[in-house]
Amino acid sequence: AGKLGDIWGHGRLLRTGWVMFLIGALIGSFAANIPQLVISRIVMGLGSALLMPSSIAAVRNSVSPEQRAPALGLLAGGLAVSAALGPPVGGFLIHHFGWQSVFWLNLPVLALSAWLARDLDLPVPEKSAHPLRFDWIGSAGLISLLACFVIGVRLTGWNGTLLLIASAVLTLLFVGWELRQREPVLDVRLFRIRAFTCAILVIAVQNFGMYGVLFQMPYLLNELYQSPANQVGLMMLATTAGMAICSPLGGRLANQITNRWTALLGSLCSLCGMTGLALTSNWSALLPIAPWLFLVGAGLGLNTGPAQATVLSAVDEKDAGMASGALSVMRYLGSISGIALLGLLLAQTEIPGIQRYQLGFKLYGCAYLVCALLAFGMKLPGLKSSPSRS
Question: How far is CA 385 from the centre of its chain?
């Protein structure tokens, strides 16, 4: 989707993704059985795949380099807050109005987004004497290796192992193919740029930890204390608050102390929060847990904008969509891996309940330690701007 935006225009893809997401939401609102519900989710997923890279690329290409980190910080904050708000809002709607209400909620949100974007005028790529060709074979290879990975991490036994091996083999073939293409769907040469690689891995690893916590907390509170869904949702708002407050701050701070130092600070902040959760032994009082969840969210807020700005600053404007697509892929791979690890932990029934969850917090904490180490490599020449110009 990101490469398609570079070729056909990000404005066109934004509008197409919006329409597809609307169609998927309508199908889900009237779904009468599981197959219809699955079709709805597939259509919504395709719409999201078009929306996300194009929106990030549009922001990247619409602001100056000095404004890039603050602008992407605001965008990252919106994404993170919406991801954290989804479970509690969804739980409330399902509890009071039924599961169809989750799909109906998308309609006013989509209407609001259409109104806000009514004057959005994104440039269409100029036609050249040598039109860009889309790499269909590379795209098929990328889809195949991602599908094998996503399904493989969710399966146990030999089936999952074979799919992960297939994903690794397809990755090698994909890299070999892309290196020979004039217009690759993903220019793997970008990974030779240390700042690009470190920043995109920060995005993946921090999402590994974030989604692990977002999905682990409801299981923990429900299993140990039978906490109702609305109470669990209120607890998770602490993480949301941390992200909402610190996402715009992270972008502005990056202009003062550079992207990598801001990302390092955010990683250490999330690490402190995760350490506090791992060391908590008495979960009977939920209020003392909130500060640790807030710290995790605050670190994520500080981290995301600078990391995204580093990735997008490493590429030319014409490749912004491709880089944004790579960001989206790495974000989802990290999320899926974090949830898969939670599934493995929940399956270890021989480990007592609280110890099982504490082990999860420790592993997710290690992810933020890795983020802190990766942040040191997020340095691109010329990224630091003067405070007055910012």
Answer: 27
